[in-house]
Specification:
The strands form 4 sheets. The chain has an 8-stranded mixed beta sheet with strand order 13-14-15-16-17-18-12-19. The chain has a 4-stranded antiparallel beta sheet with strand order 2-3-4-9, with no helix packed on it. Strands 5-6-7-8 form a 4-stranded antiparallel beta sheet, with no helix packed on it. The protein has helices spanning about 5-10, 20-25, 105-110, 170-175, 180-195, 230-235, 305-310, 330-345, 390-405; strands at about 25-30, 45-50, 50-60, 65-70, 80-85, 85-90, 95, 105, 125, 130, 135-140, 160-165, 205-215, 215-225, 240, 245, 250-260, 260-270, 285. The protein folds into 2 domains: about 30-140, Rieske Iron-sulfur Protein, CATH 2.102.10; about 150-405, Naphthalene 1,2-dioxygenase Alpha Subunit, Chain A, domain 1 (Alpha-Beta Complex). The chain contains 9 helices and 19 strands. The longest helix is centred in the C-terminal third of the chain and has 18 residues, at about 330-345. Helix content is about 20%, strand content about 25%. The radius of gyration is 23 Å and the shape is globular. The chain is of the alpha+beta class and about 425 residues long.
Length: about 425
């Protein structure tokens, strides 16, 4: 259990809070790049992250920006502004700001006082944005910003897609799921069987758990009744990726919107047949529903939807002073302690865990992965989140057919 004070410290992520200052030292995914291509239909999007209301945009010059939701002139909503060659213009009085927050144009003020420099005295809050792996990433922390991690998996061959869901609870109870291997046995295997109306024996029980800290978070290992320490679930394990993600061959980030809501961001790769080169020009992104619109009940048909039920069921902010932790919670205890250690580190002026500062080290950074075989009879149905659009499913099937029909590349020197 945690005291109420420590629970509050770990859960609150707004500006000026200890955990907010910690999480601001990392890059966070906030949108899909596909939303801003011409077919995506957007040039401006309101976003809320770490308790801050912001406006994300792509200007007509192709640059991304992330600025305050409100214009510093008269506080108009910048998400209704419009993009130009260089920056975002407020729709109320036409003030124009670039991606660095500088005011470039104040139409009436410059007409009346062309010799004045009022625009040089006004700035809008602005944060850097980067595009990588079909995602748009934001950094809200102090300079210098660390490297945006270039994970090796981003470069693997396969059909990729990005999925967003908004979960009405605090980010920490979502992330604690990332280091809780026993929940697979009960939430997904046993309860999943009940939900499907299936009879038969329960899932193999967990017999042993192991946790190891490494450069980018924690590895968790497990032995079940049907496995041994020679199985990849133990020898390779799974990755609780620091500070707010899970990696199991796909990525799941838990990005705080504010203290009572979380943006779940999933990045998925499905292997494709053959060896011919395959490249996606645009990685599709879509929003997944979390509740049935007819009943108002949580959707429970897919893996991450089941996770959402467990996370949100703890309340908008879990009261950890009421917990009774057991042996299966060793990883959760390690995670909480590491966060508290990181808070001490930044208070002392040191970097927290898992930041990459050296650009030379940030190239296809390897994370442990248990390989997954290419299915024999076409692409697998998407198991993680409900509501996959038909267009994304058809795009995956088309990619599969193209790769299956493509001739194998010639041997080197042939």
């Amino acid at each position: 259990m945690l005291s109420e004070e420590r629970n509050r410290i770990l859960c609150q992520t707004g500006p000026g809070t200890p955990m907010g200052e910690l999480l601001r030292r990392y890059w966070h995914p906030v949108a899909g790049a596909a939303e801003f291509v011409p077919s995506g239909g957007k040039t401006v999007k309101p976003v809320r992250i770490l308790g801050e209301d912001l406006t994300l945009y792509r200007d007509s010059g192709g640059d991304y920006g992330l600025v305050d939701r409100h214009c510093p002139h008269r506080r108009a909503d910048m998400s209704y502004g419009f993009v130009e060659e260089r920056g975002l213009r407020c729709n109320y009085h036409g003030w124009l700001f670039d991606r660095d927050g500088a005011c470039l144009h104040q139409p009436f003020e410059e007409t009346r006082h062309p010799e004045g420099n009022f625009k040089d005295k006004v700035r809008i809050k602005a944060y850097p944005v980067r595009e990588l792996a079909g995602l748009l990433w934001a950094y809200l922390g102090p300079d210098p910003a660390p490297e945006l991690p270039d994970w090796e998996r981003f470069h693997d061959r396969g059909f990729k897609q990005v999925v967003f869901s908004e979960v009405p609870c605090n980010w920490l109870q979502c992330q604690e799921n990332s280091i809780d291997p026993v929940h697979f046995e009960w939430l997904h295997d046993n309860w999943g069987k009940v939900l499907r109306g299936e009879d038969g024996p329960r899932a193999p029980q967990h017999r042993r758990l192991g946790f190891d800290e490494f450069d980018y978070g924690f590895l968790y290992r497990r032995v079940r009744e049907d496995t041994t320490e020679q199985d990849e679930l133990w020898t390779t394990g799974r990755c609780c990726l620091w500070p707010n993600a899970l990696y199991t061959g796909h990525f799941e980030w838990r990005v705080p919107i504010d203290d009572t809501s979380t943006l779940s961001v999933g990045w998925f790769l499905d292997e494709l047949p053959g060896d011919a080169p395959f490249r996606q020009e645009v990685i599709p992104s879509w929003d997944a529903p979390v509740k049935d619109p007819e009943t108002g009940r949580w959707i429970t048909s897919h893996i991450m939807n089941q996770d959402f039920v467990a996370w949100a069921g703890q309340g908008s902010v879990a009261d950890r002073s009421l917990e009774h932790l057991g042996e299966s919670d060793r990883g959760v205890i390690l995670l909480r302690k590491r966060f508290l250690d990181d808070l001490d580190a930044i208070q002392a002026g040191r970097d927290p865990m898992a930041l990459i500062r050296d650009p030379a080290a940030n190239h296809r950074v390897h994370l442990p992965i248990i390989p997954r075989a290419v299915p024999e009879n076409g692409p697998r149905p998407f198991p993680f989140l409900a509501g996959q659009p038909a267009g994304v499913r058809e795009e995956h099937q088309r990619a599969w057919r193209e790769c299956e029909a493509a001739p194998a590349p010639s041997p080197s020197g042939g």
